[in-house]
Amino acid sequence: MSSEPVEGEARDPLAHEIQELKLKVGEISDRLDVLSRATMDMKADISKLSSGLESLQREVYKLSESFGHIVEDIARSVLPSILFTKMGVSVESLERRFFELDGKTVEVDIYGLGKRLAEGEAVVVVGEAKARIHGEDVRLFHEKAQRILGHNGCVGDPVLVMYGLYLHPTAIEEAKKRGVSLISPYLELVKLKAPNGGLTGHSQQG
């Protein structure tokens, strides 16, 4: 007798494998659905985090700006007495001032007119206030001050000052070279014009 398998029996293993394959494809599809939902949730979380970071950055900027204004207010309040006692310069008040130079608005934190007590010579005080002052800050301020002093409305011997809560060593070196007075609650560095037109200076712990 013939031992050839019946046609239905020959198809059973293939059908079984196809059924298993379908089950595996179904499992993979379910896992992909889970992964897709997890990805969407992660995107939502990242979006919330990004929005939160942007909000935090805005708040930090506002805080930094407010702190900067506080430092400026302190500088304008204390500098008149420091200029008077340490440099012999009398100035009634200091203010923020805006200048129109070459079609652009240039702002300075500290500006005022006064005179030297000894000679009665007119002076113009130009200054800047920052929480932290580095050498590059001194250079940029000095360059800006030179432009302002070239303005027709600025009449008087220039007195350049910078007030900061922290003075980096590079700022002190740059100030010495450029004749800028650096003043802080912890260190006061004053560069004065000597009678012969040269520069003298002294540093004082305060």
Automatic annotation (TrEMBL):
It comes from the Archaea. InterPro entries: DUF8196. Pfam families: DUF8196. Residues 75-191 form the DUF8196 domain. This is DUF8196 domain-containing protein. It comes from Thermogladius calderae (strain DSM 22663 / VKM B-2946 / 1633).
